[in-house]
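Figure 6 in text form: structure in, sequence out.
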């Protein structure tokens, strides 16, 4: 029988002071859902006997089958403490690494979290992840040390050993928190420092502590108070529990109990019950130093020993008499039905459930220690409101005022409504309240009875008239038939409605009250409150909405609101601020997450960060081609229903699903088959991403013999394209465009490892840098300052990135000196782990770092024409390398010379590069002038014989925004992906290079081709994506685990025996390409005793050369002349090439002649 109904909960929703929005976070299988069961049973939603067995919040069939949670789901509970009623909106999250996206969606809506740790397994990888997630979302965590029963029953620890173990686990967790705290403080300190110096330099010029050359990183760490961030039982933020047996307690419970018995004050006991204190029997005083004196700590004496003896009596000795005594002494009332039960576990659970109810302990901690919606951290609000490194004070004043709406969390009519949707989820229509049979009231029952009676009498009367009906006319028969048909039609419609699926938004009201029929805006991430407000002020209200709709905001009417009750939903008329809810009718407007608001001044919330990036891809196709539309539709729905999956159509036309891991992929495919597309599908082998790179030529061969001189250049000669090119002995390449107007000298070399790692880690910064640099260039011309929109934090991060890059280059040796300032672009996508360097002696282009420098420190700013085309060529080359068209990584292309001949009227070409530049500093005005028309008279080219100067135009390709295109460029290339000036319809004849197409296009393809050839000159390698893999296994299955790991080309990094147990913690790495079925195989081979957790860790070069053939005598001797089987890189490469339909250099028939001869002889 349910203890609380929806009306009561709705009433509780009105009092934000007594609302707690919390989520349960932990590593996989540490007992989150089991604990949620215990909490749910306290509200009578499930019986306490079924708690732990039912796993009520795992409502999907596959969740129940596999025993893991796959999605986060919410339930609202009531908790009564003293004279106060609390509303707990509880969200259970999955712990499996593949579903960590769901954790992000849960934490975003909460103010507090319960972090559960299995005391036997201790802190595991996902525990780190969830703690970091809670930290970065600024939500307060509390700790539950779970599965303490395992210390008694499985590990057979004594209470003293168990106490030690609990201390260890607590220390482990606090170490993680301490690290997070320290890094947070240091970040803040650096930020403060940067801000301070920036302010001072603004005022005075010279920096105050320039003489202080050594920065003390621990600055600020000591003065910041960290006492309240740690978990400590005496602070009341730790619960000791066994979710499966339904018990749990905090120190407070025992402190109050023993205070009366021992005559000691509660506060003293609270401080001493956990820790190194003991009770001196003689003096009856609590003393310090239990360990040193070999005494039992209070925690052992007063708590653990009692628990241990209960377990011993009930489970081991099964001593019923003693058990009854214990029940009596604890003053418990156990139902006779439970006492009669044969299973001692039932006795134990009945006793513990009453003595130390888990729900009581956990929920009272939640109410006391976790913040409610009224105490939302102000830093958190600012972070939520400002995405993309934007500063809070750059938001328009109306938007800044909304901060107080967040903090006050009011729900009166005049308060703006702000709702955040963190994910969309699907439920089948059957679970919608409108399709559910609700229990009938007494009056309705009477009415129905009356109706039935009437129908019966009517039927009897009809039967009597049957004979007359036989003579009825045809027409009336027909009408009767149509009537039935109509009737059956409506029922089939209803059936379809019941069978379908409905999307609901998983959301939280942060301010105001959302109600049915209300009109709200859906704000897309691109929504800029400033723009919207300007428009609203400038024009009529309705018009603005129409103008903006479809761009960044859409208006909609709220249709259905639901209270989320786990597997059930309760319809609501309105929901006030501070609550979690479900919203219907948004499937066409919201893809995955969104912000809803009643005011356009509200900025879109910062997007969520996902801990696991999707990495496993498969291509899917329908079994029957006619089902293609269903597949496309199904993929769309799948994308919407899962926060972490990506679906895309590749250039090849393949429909691809990208999932976070194997388990996630399997769930996605099941959903696609059974829920969204409802068709049979074929699924390709997993597509694993690879990267291509080059290395420094190896010094030894495959049999460890020194290589004298392998001439790599020989091999690439045959591949060289029709473009005119020449490879010189030092490994550089000279290449000319097909019209011979421009020539390049370039060279490829591997980037130092440290640099590649830096680039890889700072993709987001590089993107911001690129945008800022483009904005900087455009602000030179349009004179609007855009740089101040970057927060100090981002600016200091960028400066730091530059410094670290510089240091990495310096460490790498002389040849890299000054490379940081020569960076032309990163690639692919302008923010990848490859670099284009400008080593052209006469070309000093504006540095990419210039946007960070103070005004006035700008160096040379000559931007040469076609600069953008060179960058585009580089982007294309790095996007798909020559090995198997996978992106490049860790490659540096240095352009050492670039000549650009100028075309004269008579078709003669002349000029060197330096002459065709635009000095942005000196000629700023001229450029501005040139903006007014296609050709400028003001800008002249020295030595130019052409009467029509073309240098004032800067045609920029891929990625440059249109303001940079200073004039309508006659040289713009229409074939390049995003040329900034769309109104150029045809290139002017003089810029078309002798029938070979526009020059900018030729430069793009020449640079691209040049980069590819330069890459091929060097020894090439594939880079494989690697998983890190954590396995916990007992000693007896260790050998089998190692067997499976090594068979799949994995390597063991670490192996540690856990103290006091026979369990080993193994960390290994494994290529993603070899990982499919790995978890399953390990589980099978070890009979389920070991189960690995895989998560993407890094990229690693495959050591073998994909083009290697045995050449030296030793190699031939060792491998024979066909050594393909040995070559892992070749296998990977051919696999990818085959999938992509590229040419493979492989004989399909080995001994064709022999076969023919054989058949002839037959
Ligand atoms: N011995 C013991 N087992 C427990 C306890 N709590 C949970 N379990 C068991 O641990 C297993 C995992 O429990 P779940 O509650 O599904 O764990 P979870 O954290 O929700 O797992 P995911 O949602 O998949 O991350 C189940 O078999 C539970 O019966 C406990 O306190 N003691
Ligand atoms: Mg679970």
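Output sequence:
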């Amino acid at each position: 029988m349910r203890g609380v109904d929806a009306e009561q909960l709705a009433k509780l929703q009105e009092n934000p002071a007594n609302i707690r929005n919390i989520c349960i976070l932990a590593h996989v299988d540490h007992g989150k859902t089991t604990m949620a069961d215990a909490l749910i049973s306290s509200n009578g939603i499930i019986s306490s006997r079924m708690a732990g067995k039912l796993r009520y919040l795992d409502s999907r069939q596959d969740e129940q089958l596999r025993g893991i949670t796959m999605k986060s789901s919410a339930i609202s509970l009531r908790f009564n403490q003293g004279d106060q009623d609390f509303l707990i909106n509880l969200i259970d999250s999955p712990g499996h690494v593949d579903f960590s996206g769901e954790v992000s969606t849960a934490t975003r809506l909460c103010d507090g979290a319960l972090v559960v740790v299995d005391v036997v397994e201790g802190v595991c990888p996902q525990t780190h992840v969830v703690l970091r997630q809670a930290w970065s979302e600024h939500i307060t965590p509390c700790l539950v040390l779970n599965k303490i029963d395992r210390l008694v029953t499985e590990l057979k620890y004594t209470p003293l050993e168990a106490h030690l173990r609990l201390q260890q686990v607590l220390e482990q967790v606090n170490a993680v928190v301490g690290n997070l705290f320290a890094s947070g403080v240091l970040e803040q300190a650096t930020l403060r420092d940067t801000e301070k110096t920036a302010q001072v330099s603004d005022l005075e010029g010279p920096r105050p502590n320039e003489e202080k050359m050594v920065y003390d990183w621990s600055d600020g760490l000591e003065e910041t108070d960290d006492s309240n961030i740690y978990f400590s039982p005496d602070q009341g933020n730790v619960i000791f529990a066994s979710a499966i047996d339904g018990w749990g307690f905090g120190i407070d419970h025992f402190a109050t109990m023993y205070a009366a018995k021992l005559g000691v004050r509660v506060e003293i006991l609270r401080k001493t019950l956990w820790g190194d204190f003991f009770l001196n029997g003689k003096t009856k005083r609590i003393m310090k130093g239990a360990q040193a004196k070999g005494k039992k700590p209070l925690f052992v004496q007063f708590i653990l020993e009692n628990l241990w003896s209960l377990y011993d009596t009930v489970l081991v000795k099964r001593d019923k008499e003693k058990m009854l005594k214990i029940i009596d002494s604890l003053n418990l009332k156990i139902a006779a039905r439970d006492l009669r039960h044969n299973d001692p576990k039932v006795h134990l659970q009945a006793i513990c459930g009453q003595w130390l109810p888990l729900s009581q302990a956990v929920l009272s901690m939640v109410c006391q220690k976790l913040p409610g919606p009224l105490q939302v951290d102000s830093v958190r609000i600012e972070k939520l409101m400002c995405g993309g490194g934007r500063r809070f004070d750059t938001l328009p004043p109306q938007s800044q005022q909304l901060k107080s709406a967040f903090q006050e969390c009011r729900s009166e009519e005049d308060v703006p409504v702000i709702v955040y949707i963190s994910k969309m989820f699907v439920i089948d229509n059957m679970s919608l309240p409108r399709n559910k049979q609700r229990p009938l009231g007494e009056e309705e029952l009477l009415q129905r009875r009356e109706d039935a009676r009437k129908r019966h009498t009517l039927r009897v009367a009809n039967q009597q008239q049957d004979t007359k009906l036989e003579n009825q006319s045809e027409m009336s028969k027909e009408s009767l038939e149509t009537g039935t048909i109509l009737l059956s039609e409506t029922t089939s419609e209803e059936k379809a409605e019941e069978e379908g699926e409905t999307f609901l938004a998983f959301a939280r009201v942060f301010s105001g009250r959302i109600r049915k029929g209300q009109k709200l805006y859906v704000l897309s991430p691109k929504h800029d409150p400033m723009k919207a407000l300007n428009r609203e002020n400038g024009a009529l209200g309705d018009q603005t909405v129409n103008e903006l709709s479809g761009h960044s905001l859409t208006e909609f009417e709220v249709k259905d609101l639901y209270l989320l009750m786990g597997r059930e939903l309760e319809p609501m008329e309105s929901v006030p601020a501070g609550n979690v809810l479900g919203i219907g009718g948004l499937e066409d407007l919201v893809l995955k997450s969104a912000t809803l608001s009643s005011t356009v001044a509200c900025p879109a919330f910062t997007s969520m960060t996902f801990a696991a990036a999707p990495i496993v891809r498969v291509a899917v196709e329908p079994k029957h081609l006619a089902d293609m539309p269903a597949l496309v539709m199904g993929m769309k729905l799948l994308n919407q229903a899962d926060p972490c999956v990506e679906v895309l159509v590749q250039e090849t036309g393949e429909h691809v699903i990208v999932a976070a891991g194997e388990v996630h992929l399997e769930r996605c495919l099941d959903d696609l088959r059974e829920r969204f597309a409802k068709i049979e599908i074929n699924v390709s082998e997993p597509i694993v991403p690879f990267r291509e790179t080059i290395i420094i030529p190896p010094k030894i061969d495959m049999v460890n013999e020194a290589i004298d001189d392998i001439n790599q250049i020989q091999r690439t000669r045959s591949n060289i394209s029709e473009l005119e090119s020449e490879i010189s002995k030092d490994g550089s390449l000279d290449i000319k465009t097909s019209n011979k107007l421009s020539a390049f000298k370039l060279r490829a070399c591997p980037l130092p490892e440290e640099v590649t790692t830096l680039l890889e880690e700072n993709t987001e910064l590089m993107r911001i840098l690129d945008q800022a640099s483009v904005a900087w260039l455009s602000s030179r011309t349009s004179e609007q300052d855009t740089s101040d929109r970057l927060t100090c934090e981002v600016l200091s991060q960028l400066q730091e990135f530059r410094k670290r890059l510089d240091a990495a280059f310096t460490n790498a040796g002389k040849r890299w000196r000054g490379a940081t300032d020569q960076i032309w672009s990163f690639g692919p996508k302008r923010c990848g782990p490859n670099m284009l360097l400008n080593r052209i002696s006469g070309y000093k282009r504006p540095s990419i770092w210039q946007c960070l420098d103070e005004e006035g420190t700008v160096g040379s700013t000559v931007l040469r024409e076609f600069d953008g085309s060179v960058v585009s060529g580089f982007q294309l080359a790095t996007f798909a390398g020559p090995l198997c068209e996978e992106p490049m990584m860790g490659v540096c292309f240095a352009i050492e010379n670039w000549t650009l001949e100028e075309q004269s009227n008579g078709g003669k070409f002349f000029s060197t590069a330096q002459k065709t530049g635009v000095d942005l500093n000196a000629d700023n005005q001229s450029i501005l002038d040139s903006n007014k028309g296609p050709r400028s008279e003001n800008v002249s080219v020295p030595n130019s014989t052409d009467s029509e100067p073309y240098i004032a135009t800067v045609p920029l390709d891929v990625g440059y925004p249109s303001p940079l295109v200073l004039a309508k460029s006659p040289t713009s290339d229409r074939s390049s992906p995003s040329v900034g000036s769309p109104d150029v319809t045809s290139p002017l004849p003089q810029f078309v290079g002798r029938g070979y197409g526009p020059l900018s296009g030729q430069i793009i393809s020449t640079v691209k081709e040049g980069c590819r050839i330069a890459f091929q000159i060097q020894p090439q390698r594939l880079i494989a994506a690697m998983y890190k893999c954590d396995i916990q296994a007992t000693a007896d299955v260790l050998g089998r685990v190692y067997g499976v790991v090594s068979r799949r080309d994995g390597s063991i990094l670490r192996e540690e025996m856990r103290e006091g147990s026979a369990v080993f913690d193994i960390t290994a790495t494994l290529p993603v390409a070899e990982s499919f079925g790995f978890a399953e195989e390990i589980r099978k081979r070890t009979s389920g005793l070991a189960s690995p957790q895989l998560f993407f860790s890094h990229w690693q070069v495959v050591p073998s050369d994909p083009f290697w053939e045995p050449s030296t005598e030793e190699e031939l001797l060792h491998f024979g002349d066909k050594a393909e089987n040995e070559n892992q890189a070749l296998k990977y490469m051919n696999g990818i090439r085959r999938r992509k339909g590229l040419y493979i250099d492989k004989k399909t028939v080995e001994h064709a002649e022999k076969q023919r001869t054989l058949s002839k002889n037959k």
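Caption detail: Residues 26, 28-34, 55, 67-69, 94-96, 146-147, 149-150, 242-244 surround guanosine-5'-triphosphate (ligand 1) (CB under 6 Å).
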